[in-house]
Amino acid sequence: MSVPRSVAAHRQAVVELLTGVSADRGKLRLPLLEALGKALAVDVYAPLSLPPFDNSQMDGFAVRSADIPDGGAELRVAEPVPAGAAPAALKPGFAAPIMTGAVIPEGADAVVPIEKATPNAFPDPAAGEAVVVLPSVAPGTYVRDSGSDIGKGELALVAGTRMGPAQLGLLAALGLTTVEVRKPWRVLLVTTGDEVVEPGKELTAGKIFDSNGTLLEASMRQAGLDVVRTGISDDDPSKLLAVLQRHTGPAEDRVDVIVTTGGVSKGAYEVVRQAMANQPVEFLPVAMQPGGPQGLGTVEGVPFLGFPGNPVSCLVSFEMFLRPALSQVLGTPAQRPVLKARLAESLTSPEGKHQVRRGTMGADGTVRMEGGAGSHLVHALARANALVQIPGDVTELAEGDEVEVWML
Length: 408
Ligand SMILES: Nc1nc2c(c(=O)[nH]1)N[C@H]1C(S)=C(S)[C@@H](COP(=O)(O)OP(=O)(O)OC[C@H]3O[C@@H](n4cnc5c(N)ncnc54)[C@H](O)[C@@H]3O)O[C@H]1N2
Ligand code: MOO
Prior knowledge:
Belongs to the MoeA family. By secondary structure, this protein is of the alpha/beta class. The chain has helices spanning 7-19, 165-173, 212-222, 237-245, 271-275, 311-330, 378-383; strands at residues 27-31, 44-45, 55-56, 60-63, 73-77, 94-98, 110-113, 131-134, 143-144, 155-157, 178-182, 186-191, 196-197, 208-209, 226-229, 257-261, 281-285, 288-289, 293-299, 302-307, 338-343, 347-348, 354-361, 366-369, 386-390, 396-397, 402-407. Strand 23 and strand 24 (366-369) form a beta hairpin. The longest helix is centred in the last third of the chain and has 20 residues, at 311-330. Molybdate ion is lined by residues 289-292, 308, 310, 313, 375.
């Protein structure tokens, strides 16, 4: 019986396994929204400045600050400047009603918010000439300078950046409609087990629906991977190996990583273990629960990860090993946010095993457990928003104790 490997050592082994894969699958030009979650393939430089022109930060009056001495001044009201208009220059002695985002007229160098004007409402342009009394204002007040966010020609996003909402929003602000991203890695995902049937099919005695396929495909897609599914493999090892080998050849069908679920522990029909008998794949215990039994190696040179079959175990395996390793090797996906939280309840944990409980982080910084430690508890998993990390040397924690949580 081999000594269980630590969580950190197993994660490092996954990193090393993936480091051997060529990270460069080429580039792909996609419409912005289809690039969500993918990694930028090239540096992007700003084709224009942001803001593109000096503009007002407030609804108010654009003024020449030199026109207003300490104590304020009465100025004549000029033509209003709505957002989107190209205004005329501001004459000395005038104040132009200006809206947030509108171009600062030539000659103006500050904005006085409408709340500080007397009267504190914009005059009706149809009512003829008007005057307004304004307090003095320093040059530059409430003016958003052209290029103050980014200047034309500056580096907007560096190659490798993960395209989230903010990054895509920036590219849209720069007027871009498409972006070059790294072609995502392709993962072959195979769920196994004679007892497992596709959702939607008939559930006969002793059978259960396949939750792992959906759970892991969703996790992988969220992490920016392309997923190839084969359907559920039964308990025939030679058939399983043949399925995997269809995706390990030099052709188009070759994948970058293979992930299976189930068939890795100590039962009499461990299909994944048996299928890997002549492949450089190691089956080993990791000192973690859920996700203790793991398979790791290569099939015809393609990295292979054999996750355990329990649904929570395979999700935890993905979050603890594959997702962080991808972040490290590819730069995407982003790491899960790691927080400290206070336990809302006491708990116990098995000695010598890093336990990953599922919990809900509250707004008050406490975390409460969702369900028990069992790795079959998919309903409790669906209520959780965090993985609660309990190190292997901790066996008891009291309410209020601090724990590390990974936000899902
Ligand atoms: N004698 C021992 N038995 C077990 C050990 C052990 O060390 N000694 N380890 C236990 C632990 S921990 C885990 S985790 C599981 C891992 O088992 P396998 O990876 O071999 O997976 P299966 O036996 O195929 O399935 C386990 C469990 O999960 C259900 N399952 C499987 N696939 C799916 C799916 N696609 N969707 C939903 N549920 C699935 C399956 O029906 C089983 O209930 O082994 C323990 N046993
Ligand atoms: O380690 Mo298994 O993954 O508990 O359920």
